[in-house]
Amino acid sequence: MAGTGEAKKEEADYKRLCNFPLIRHTDMPDEMRIEAVELCVTACEKFATNNESAAKMIKEYMDKKFGSSWHVVIGESFGFEITHEFKNLLYMFFGGSLAVCVWKCS
Questions:
Q1: How many structural domains compose the chain?
Q2: β-strands 98-104, 89-94: how paired?
Q3: How many angstroms separate the CA atoms of 81 and 66, rounded?
Q4: Looking at residue 44, which CATH number applies to its domain?
Q5: What DSSP letter does each residue of 39-98 carry, written as one string?
Q6: What residues does 66 pair with on adjacent strands?
Q7: Which residue in 12, 21, 43, 102 has a CA-CA distance of 20 to 30 Å to 34?
Q8: Cα 15 to chain centroid, rounded
Q9: How many CB atoms are closer than 10 A to CB 35?
Q10: Which residue, 101, 106, 61, 68, is CA-closest to 86?
Q11: Which GO cellular component terms, listed alphabetically, does the Swiss-Prot or TrEMBL entry include (predicted)?
């Protein structure tokens, strides 16, 4: 049982260390990028156990703020190949292994 407690403590320490956004790729303008990253962090923290709700929150906000046709994928260990509008892509990691991909296509 002590091993399980130590593993949970190590996992909590890891998540605390990696609790910052790491932008892997983006071509968004600075103002849009900053707002999108802050939105992604807020959604992932608010819906830590429900990626679908976090993605829905991000999509609805981006649609309202920057026009329609935004898409969001949140998860771990996924690959993708997308077509997107120029200057409308954000691919980032949050909390260590949680990936967030936000893009717009018409």
A1: 1
A2: antiparallel
A3: 23
A4: 3.30.740.10
A5: HHHHHHHHTTT-HHHHHHHHHHHHHHHH-S-EEEEEESS--------TT-EEEEEETTTE
A6: none
A7: 12
A8: 15
A9: 15
A10: 106
A11: axoneme; dynein complex; microtubule
